[in-house]
Structure formats: structure tokens, C-alpha cells
From TrEMBL:
Pfam families: Lactamase_B. This is MBL fold metallo-hydrolase. Residues 3-94 form the Metallo-beta-lactamase domain. Belongs to the metallo-beta-lactamase superfamily. Keywords: Hydrolase, Metal-binding, Zinc. SUPFAM superfamilies: Metallo-hydrolase/oxidoreductase. Gene3D superfamilies: Ribonuclease Z/Hydroxyacylglutathione hydrolase-like (3.60.15.10). It comes from Paracoccus cavernae.
Length: 126
């Protein structure tokens, strides 16, 4: 029910440890999230880099999948700068498995996803 939906804005703590980041351009209202636990951070940025392999290699390219290409470009560059400057772990949709790692800046116009190694076991769980 719509009456049960609570809307949130940019830079708002949704629940403890999860904060919204407005990342417009791909779609209206596109939002990413910063997840924190102690000192650890994970930037979940959805479609900021749709077609991750291509868009990171050519970040100035504006794919037709972005509804507002110029806004999406500005958002993408802002988020890439944030991820590389702060060495944040990133989870990105449409990326190669496992879809998370760190962004490495190659040049001002080229980036790469350095994926984290995947393991099917979690700290001794089997």
C-alpha cells in the first residue's frame, strides 16, 4: 500500500549503516547506497556503470540505455572519482562475476574493475 511506503531523499540514512546517494541519469530517481559496518564501506551503485566492462574502459561514452545521457555522464564521473579517491569497495550491477571489487583509475578517461576473489565459503562456513 502506498500509505505504507516511506520515501527517502539523497544522503539519508535508510537504516543504520545504509545511506542513500542520489545517482541520476540512468533512470529518474536512480539511487545508490553506501553500506558501512565499522570502518568497512561498500558502495552499491546499481546502473551507474551499466555495461560495466565497456563503460569503465570508455567512461565518457554515453550509452543509449541512460535516459539522460549528460546527467548520467556527470554522475558516473562523480562516482568514479569518489570510488578511486577513497579506495572504496564497489558492487556494480551488470559487471563480470562476482560484480564487486575496487575501481582502478588507468587515466583520466579510463578505469578498470579489479574484482575481489570469490569464495563459496564464508569464514569457515561449509
Amino acid at each position: 500500500m502506498e500509505k505504507d511506503v516511506e520515501r527517502f531523499g539523497d544522503d539519508q540514512e535508510i537504516v543504520p549503516g545504509i545511506r542513500s546517494i542520489w545517482t541520476p541519469g540512468h533512470t529518474p530517481g536512480h539511487t545508490s547506497f553506501m553500506v558501512t559496518s565499522g570502518e568497512a564501506q561498500l558502495l552499491v551503485w546499481g546502473d551507474v556503470t551499466n555495461f560495466t566492462d565497456i563503460v569503465l574502459r570508455f567512461p565518457l561514452w554515453t550509452p543509449s540505455a541512460d535516459m539522460d545521457q549528460q546527467v548520467a555522464l556527470s554522475t558516473r564521473m562523480r562516482m568514479l572519482d569518489m570510488a578511486t579517491a577513497d579506495r572504496m569497495r564497489v558492487s556494480c550491477f551488470h559487471g563480470p562475476f562476482p560484480g564487486n571489487g575496487y575501481i582502478r583509475k588507468i587515466t583520466d578517461e579510463e578505469y578498470r574493475l579489479v574484482p575481489l576473489q570469490w569464495t563459496e565459503h564464508l569464514d569457515g562456513w561449509k
